[in-house]
Structures are given as C-alpha cells and as structure tokens.
Amino acid sequence: MTGPSREIRWRLEGAIVDDEGIAPGYLRLDASGRIVERGQRGTAGPGPGGERRVRGIVLPWGVNGHTHLADGVYLREPPPLSLAQLVAPPGGLKHRLLAETPDPVKARSIRGSLHAMARAGVAGVVDFREEGIRGVRILREAARGLPLRVWALGRPSTTPASVEELSGLLKEADGLGLSSVRDLPPGEGRRLASACRSGHRLLALHASEGVREELGPILRLKPDLLVHLCKASAGDLDDVRRARVGVAVCPRSNALFRRFPPLAALEAREIPFLLGTDNAMFGAPNLFREMEFAYLSARSRGEPVRPETLVRAVFVNPWNVLGDPRQASLVPGSPAGTILLRLPIEDPTYQIVARASPGKLFVPPRPGPFP
Fold it and tell me: Going by DSSP bridges, is the β-strand pair 273-275/246-249 parallel, antiparallel, or unpaired?
C-alpha cells in the first residue's frame, strides 16, 4: 500500500472484482484515473482535501468478446428465417443488406454501437468484420477517436482469398474472423491459419453453432478463439480445454434459434470463455443484458452457471485471452482502468448479473491510452 498523494481524487470502496477474485477493499485513484493505492476495507487513512469517495462494486473495464456490428443497419424484428437464411454468406439477408447499404451508413451504425458500449463500461470489442479490406477500414473509421480498443477480425471478400487481398487484409486487421471451416474449400483453412501465424495475427472461427463439427481439423489450425460451440460434445470440450483455446459465447442471439452455449460444461472444465453480443441486427450490444440472460437461461434449463463465471467472462477473461492480462489487474502500477457499479456489495457478482445497468455506473478517467 502506498501513501496518500496530493493528486488523489477518488476513493472507490466496497467490493473489488478483478483477476485475483473478489475481495472487500478500496482503491485510491489519482487525477488521471491511475491506481495509486489499494487496501483492505476499513483500513484507509484520511485522504487529501477534495477526495471523492464512491461506494459500490469496483471492476476493470469490460470487453465484448464477439460482435458483428455492421449489420446493425437492420433494426427491425428478424424475419422467421433460419440462421443460414439470415446471416450465412454469401446470400443471407445480412450479406444482401451489407452489399446494398452505403459505407457511410454502415460506419454511422457501427459508431453508434461502439459509443453505446463505451458509455457502458466497455473498453474493448472483438468484431468480425466482413467485406474484406474495405470492411475493416469502415470499422476503423467508425471507431476513430472513441475510448475503446477494437480488435478488427477481417474476412476475405472472395473464397479462396487472393494472395493480394489476404496480404493487405492482415496488414489492416488484427486477424481473421471466419464464418466456419465448412464454408472453405479444402486446404484454405490451413492457408489462412498459416498466414495469421506468420503475420502474428489472431485467428477466430465460428464452430459447432448449428450442427456439431469435428473439432480435430479446426483445432489443428491453432485458432486463438472459437465462437459458439452450441452443438459441441463433451469430448469436443475436453479437446478445447487441452488445446487451451479461448471460447466466445453469445447466449441471447443463440436463443433466437433455440440454441444454447454449453456454459455449465465450459465452467466445469475451467475453460475461460468470453461473452459477446453477436449480431447487432438481433439486439443491442449490451453486456449487462447478456450476463443477465446467460444466468437466467442457464438456471432455467437446469444447467446453472455461477454469477462469478459470467462476470469474469466480461471483465477478466477477455484481457487474458487477448494477451493483455494487466488490464484485468486492479493494483497500483497497473495500466488498468476502473469502473464502479453503485450496487449493494453483498454477493457482488450476483448483483452485477441481476441488477447492473449503464445507469448504475461511475466511470473515473482512464489512465493513459486505451489498449
């Protein structure tokens, strides 16, 4: 614990939830939002004049682990079509809409979603961005100047991808976000995976969303992130655990099609999963809603998952899976930013999944540039 500083502006106290778990305590932040002191609850000495004291549940900033933000240009109720008819490339409703919508309109829609997430305590978004190099550029332009980190996972506009487009895409994007190995011609998955590894880029794929897929060939691609796994078997999940691959799940969008990610099975295997809000055309990118729905739907189906597991899926696991674990550590010297939810501190992770909303947030300045 460090001594009080003249620059201390805030004392956040109550329950602290970060990569170390849950503990009663307090943090002192300087004027820039940097953590300068952490201690046990009830042990804080007197602070400097003007220190603002805020009580509640203290967390790192969150990450939305899987989105398709561009299709948020479609705001109506989804028609009663199959998932493939709605979103599968190249002829699904979503892809027809993207082709018909001017780029500035898509950029405005994406920016609106990003802005809403930033106001709700989100500092990172993992977005699957279709439409090749142009699609990644639309996303980058939409995110310009906003206080969050966007992992842009692009997708080649043609299959198989041309050498020129693949090279350019991996220069512009943080990696590739592929619809499914089943959508690729033989050998193309290996080629794309090799290009990602050579360029030190992320590789993420949808897998076993609507039907079970053999995960052996997928895992041999050494992906960084698998998305959905609704139809994965127990043996498949054992293989994912052994391969130490990150997983992203999207309970609300899956439920539209009577599919449910295996939350309890992932928890039992200690597979660190991320929560994502998936297609913006299906609902708002609100992680508080996602946590609440995940908790209630799992419990109602007799496969309950602990609130702490869901909270970690938003505020801790993504930083670890995406390679920036210090952002989940609320200790002096950490670059992590903090948020506070003005909620009761008894059983804090249940309070978060059951009662949190953007209106409950207190957000100090974030120290330094966003990750």
Answer: parallel
105, pLDDT greater than 80: yes
Give the helix ranges, DSSP H, for 275-357: 287-300, 307-315, 317-321, 348-355
Q: Is the pTM of this model over 0.90?
A: yes
Enter the DSSP assignment of 178.
E
C-alpha of 108 from chain center? 21
CA angle 333, 335, 341 (to 5 degrees): 105
Q: What is the DSSP string of 121-160?
A: TEEEEEEEE-SHHHHHHHHHHHHTT-SSEEEEEE--SSSS
200: which 2 tokens? Answer: 């030190």
Cα 369 to Cα 30, 124, 190, 296, distances in angstroms: 16, 13, 35, 36
CB atoms within 10 A of CB 211: 9
pLDDT value at position 272?
Answer: 94
Of 68, 65, 18, 64, nearest to 38 (Cα)? 18
Contact 322, 63 (CB under 8 A): yes
Q: Is 202 exposed, middle or buried (0-12, 13-18, 19+ CB in 10 A)?
A: buried
For residue 242, what are the CA distances in angstroms to 161, 207, 215, 235, 269? 31, 17, 12, 11, 10
Q: What is the pLDDT of residues 211-245, one digit of tens each?
A: 999 999 999 999 999 999 999 999 999 999 999 99
Domains and CATH numbers, the chain: 8-60+330-362 (2.30.40.10), 62-305 (3.20.20.140)
